[in-house]
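Forum: Protein Structure Q&A
Topic: Joint prediction for protein chains with partners

I've read a bunch of threads here and the consensus seems to be that you should model interacting components together rather than docking separate models afterwards. I'd like to see that in practice. Below is the full input, 503 residues plus whatever partners are listed. Could one of the regulars post the assembled result?
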Amino acid sequence: MISFVLNALRTTRHNIKANKQVFLMSVATITIAFTIQGLFFLVFVNLNTLLSTWGKQVQLIVYLDDDISKGRMNSLEETFKSNKEVDSISYISRDEAWKGFKNTFSEKSGFVTDLDFNPLPASYNLKFRDGPEQLNNIRELADSLKEYKGIESLEYGEKWISRFEKFMIILRVFILVVGAILCVGLILIISNTIKLSIYSRQDEIDLMLLLGATHRFIKTPLLLEGLVQGVIGVGLALGIVKLIHVYMRFQFQGSLESIFRGVDLQFLGQPLLWAMILVSIFIGWVGSLLSITQYLHSTDRK
Amino acid sequence: MQNVSFTIQEGEFVFLTGQSGAGKTTLFKILFGWEALDQGQVLVGGINVGKLNENNLYTLRRKVGVVFQDYKLLPKKTVFDNVAFAQQIIGADKKTIRFNTWDALKSVGLTNKKDAYPPQLSGGEQQRVAIARALVNDPQLILADEPTGNLDPEISLEILELFEKMNQQGKTVIMATHSLEMLQVRDHRLLILNRGRIVQS
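Posted by a regular:
Agreed with the consensus. Here's the joint model:
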């Protein structure tokens, strides 16, 4: 078994050396493809972070009718308090709202201060607990309050959040489709490289068959060769993506911070990194398996 | 090939002859599972060749040593490595490989050339390397497809004697040749193929 493994490794190294140029071309192609995919992932991961950062700042504002009774207000407060997801409740009376409004806008527009009535409603500002379901929790409570008498309107930036979420779903599908197409392309490229490797050693492989080598013995070094291509390719690609990530962080730190509100530019998470490595192993394996199986099938016992 | 039917006993030495294109090589290829057969049954040392699936053909080929007219040596490997190659691919350990390879080279009288490369050798020497390689895995049956086709008559006789020596050691040998000389100097059983049929056995 040890000699089998050693022999496979030796043959793999020998094959790679003998077909260095083709090998490097194939690795370069894999690197480019995985870099593209990696950059997509980078964009996706960071937009996702952005979405959740924004999501955390979302609060539910419940605007009240001017003539809401004290009793209804109390029962509303009870409803808020009984909801476990609600983190804090603050009541802003009509006067407070008006004061705040005037403070914010008085310098910009004179007519506001000239108004002799208060147009603003009183409101409850509800903050929710952090968590992946935060937005859904807000949505649920908002839906349950829609028909509640005494409430003028509800606001939690639903429209732009759902639009952003839809965009993220489309982006996810797009990345998956592009990824799948790249994978198929890479499998074909690796399969061709291995085919060249096979043809450059055709006499030796035929001789191996004649002398009684098992198919496994012949396949293993070639499968390893495909696998090595995949792994080196993805390794280089991840290196490039990391460099781009570091460069972006240094270059755009100030402007990014304002968009991300203190959240740093994220790199791909471990599960994603491992997934990319596993996919590269898979396509290396499948690519070479296609070629070698096809060759053995067409050569051995025609 | 059609209506080909014959039996060769264990330990026999048989000449297979016939014109070019008569089907000698095809017959050999069928015997070691390189070519598929449409009909009939081929038994080699108890193995039903037609019934073996692709993945198990190696079990047959390890029992059969094949020698070709064009030697089929790997030019970038030394004589020793060419012979050892046959042992490596069946997964023998290093010590066994060294021992058996040396033994095989000794039996063909080439130990002094073990570090040479095939292109540095004469045709006769190259064929002896090929024979050593066929021998090294200790096969029951040796198929020699025109092994002397490219060699001088004198050298050819030496090669023939090598095969006969193996035969005396208990191996079954089928040697394809269309050299009349060779057929005349030896009194081995003769199979004649003509247009894919056995005409005399």
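The radius of gyration of chain A is 31 Å.
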